[in-house]
Specification:
The protein is α/β, with parallel strands linked by helices and 352 residues long. It is 48% helix and 11% strand. Strand 5, helix 8 and strand 6 form a beta-alpha-beta unit. The longest helix has 26 residues. It is globular and about 75 Å long.
């Protein structure tokens, strides 16, 4: 694999957020920014979409300061896709622009960088410019995990799901990075109608012959039966594709996905030491953080969480959020020398 052979002495980590248009990449980056900030994890966001509107997150580095798709289209009379490819070829040729800005970040900001890519799949499936940029980032010491988002709507249509599988597999083979495939917008799944199979069938990507049989039962697709079987066999033979699920506004969903990404990278985050404590981190704690099992759905599975008992789970999580909010407020009041009086109505003696 041509991937990352670092020449820097300090390892840096990050995510390469990619996927087709409207898969939720920018929304994920915005939600991730809020989530990492709440966890007090230093990080930096980099917008690498030269066609984007101003992103809804604070981008420390923005490729639009170097080049934009609109400028390229106007100057060279290119279409949007051709202009996008030109922008990345220009970034590859002027990589020192990106390198200088990455080096100018504070040391803690350099340690974890999230790159938000555009939705043109040509960049991550065949064009060499992005691969060249990734190789240069690797030489700077960046260890990246590709986070490939797919709109969960694809699993509601078996033919779209097969297309998503092929795109995910092709991206994995082209980028040559640790890779996490994600079904985004999973909280909207109930609006797409009843699924032919349980959700874990789509996330684990096993026994795809059931899917080809289902497709063959559709008169419109019956004539493509052998092609569907061949594609399903191809994906299963590689045995690389599986999916995590994501609902950006669901804290446990974000936590599980972030844990999967950290595990793929071997990344360990050490929070600041507790004031007054000189105890070093436990080696076993570090190992379990990097390589431990992923968090479960507090006793349930993805089918139960997002399909069978969605409303019950949502109510349970709202109650947990309320309890956490009260705990934060209790600590605040106590630290200020007051006496906590529980969840009294607003304005009624938080402190006495």
């Amino acid at each position: 694999m041509s991937a990352q052979v670092p020449t820097s002495t300090t390892a840096k980590y990050g995510q390469l957020v990619n996927g087709p248009p409207a898969s939720g990449k920018t929304t994920y980056c915005s939600g991730l920014n809020q989530f990492l900030t709440a966890l007090a994890r230093p990080h930096t966001l980099v917008n690498l979409d030269p066609a984007a509107e101003p992103p809804p997150y604070p981008a420390s580095i923005d490729i639009r300061d170097l080049i934009t798709v609109k400028d390229v289209m106007d100057e060279y009379s290119l279409g949007p896709n051709g202009a996008m490819l030109y922008c990345f070829e220009y970034l590859d040729a002027n990589f020192d622009w990106l390198e200088d800005r990455l080096r100018a970040l504070r040391p803690d900001e350099q340690g974890y960088v999230v790159f938000d890519l555009p939705g043109q799949v040509e960049l991550s499936t065949g064009h060499r410019a992005l691969a060249n940029v990734l190789g240069k980032l690797g030489k700077l010491g960046y260890r990246l995990c590709a986070v490939h988002l797919t709109d969960a709507h694809a699993i509601a249509d078996p033919s779209k799901y097969i297309s998503a599988l092929l795109l995910s597999l092709r991206t994995m083979l082209a980028l040559e990075l640790p890779h996490i495939n994600v079904l985004s917008k999973i909280d909207l799944l109930n609006t797409y109608g009843e699924l032919p199979f349980n959700l874990d069938f789509y996330t684990q990507v096993q026994d795809l012959h059931h899917l080809s049989d289902h497709l063959s039962s559709d008169p419109r697709l019956a004539r493509f039966g052998k092609l569907n079987e061949a594609v399903c066999e191809l994906v299963e033979d590689f045995g690389l594709v599986s999916f995590e699920t994501l609902a950006v506004e669901d804290k446990q969903s974000m936590y599980r996905l972030l844990s999967a990404i950290d595990r793929a990278l071997g990344y360990v985050f050490l929070p600041p030491p507790t004031p007054g404590s000189s105890a070093p981190p436990s080696a076993m704690d570090l190992f379990s953080t990097a390589m431990g099992a992923l968090p479960e759905w507090a006793g349930g599975d993805v089918q139960e969480r997002w399909v069978d008992a969605r409303e019950e789970w949502d109510a349970w999580e709202r109650e947990r959020w309320k309890e956490e909010g009260e705990e934060v407020e209790r600590r605040r009041v106590t630290e200020q020398g007051g006496r906590w009086r529980g969840s009294a109505p607003a304005g009624e003696g938080e402190r006495t």
